[in-house]
Amino acid sequence: MDLIVRALEKTNNVKRSSYTWNALNAIISALQNPVILLVMTRTNGVFDAGVFSIAFAIATLMLYMGLYGLRRFQSSDLDEKYSFREYHGMRILTCSMMLFVSLIYCIYGMCFTSYSMEKALVIFMICVVKCCQAYSDVYHGRMQQKGRLDVATKSSSVRYTFELVAYVVLLILTHNLLLSTFAFMAASIIGLLLTSVNAGRNYCEYRPSFNKAKIKGLAIEGFPLFASLFLNMYISNAPKYAIDAYLTEDIQAIYNMIFMPAFAVMLIANFIFNPILTTYAELWLAEKSGQIERLKHEIRKQSLVIAGLTVLGLAVAFTIGIPLLSIIFGVDLSEFRNELCVVMIGGGALAYATYFSTVITIIRMQRTLIVCYGIVAVGAKLLSKFFVLNYGIMGAASMYAFLMIILAIMLFIITWYGIRKESTRLRMLSE
Q1: Residue 327: Cβ within 10 Å count
Q2: What is the 8-class DSSP label of residue 274?
Q3: Which pTM value belongs to this model?
Q4: At 25, which helix (H) or strand (E)?
Q5: Which residues contact 109 (CB under 8 A, 6 or more apart)?
Q6: What is the C-alpha to C-alpha distance for residues 268 and 153, in angstroms, rounded to an integer?
Q7: What share of the chain is helix, strand, coil (3-state, %, to 5)?
Q8: Amino acid 132: pLDDT
Q9: What is the pLDDT of residues 143-165, one digit of tens each?
């Protein structure tokens, strides 16, 4: 166990290691879903790939219940308004709620929809995998707070790789969806204990605190973040839920295949700005006009990076995207080029929305997030059935892009307003 911790902490340059491993972690995380989908399509067929796709989408939605939106708050809590023990206690409660809701969802699916026992079990086991991710995140937030993002991202990378290898190997050997998913879950639990929990002892005390006043404070502080991130994931996956309700598993699999590159744009953008969250917080807390100007410069620079990634992704999608995806997944996707390009635009907008929501959290205007996400989530609920039933995969792609663009615009306006207001205040104080 000590050997694993030493390996995770070993580095000659913490800052460089943090950037490098954060990038690798984002890549491995981004590859996990498409690689499993790729192998499953070739070993088990498109139907099982569709089952896995909706299970992954539902589990990812449940993940945000376990996270409760507190990672960004925790890693930027430089004054330690709340102790790690209190964050830990809160995370145990949210993860327990996540598993309970996941179980209820699966039971409901079997009793009141067309879910088979196998499909329900696959969904629940993948929810357990995401619960491990949610629980590990509280340790990672503490590591980042203490300047060791590299240890956190190494831990995640090892666990993601272990999970992926377990799933793929069992799929190839057995072609059994249920058994492979069980291996996926077991690998996640073992990986969590050997990496994040094991390394966490050097940065925090394991024993959680369930102080009622502090838990209530965290619940209030985190609720806007939880609600906005939960609704964000619902909005992102609304087309998948509509396909699950009204169309077939085969169509679900195809939509997920063309959705992969768009999601990758957001993940790549994330790994670029995740390491600088603490820097953003320091610039904001400095309460100096020059530092606010520097923060504005950083935001403009990051916005250009996201734009560049989106344009690059769109160019690749239009030219070689469909032939490449067809080769990768072993499915003819030649008729879905337009859908892929539309989804890529939505992916870029999602990257902007995620970025601006992060900045809004740092400048402590997170209560506005729930309004923005709530409005767009209502739109998703009202539009999804019409778009998917009438226009199929193009309807799903168009709805996704439209909702993401509206959301990104709303969050940009709030970010601009919040920083401009603070800049004006500091300028007046200095005069």
Answers
A1: 11
A2: G
A3: 0.81
A4: helix 14-43
A5: 115, 119, 120, 123
A6: 14
A7: 90, 0, 10
A8: 96
A9: 888 888 889 999 999 999 999 99
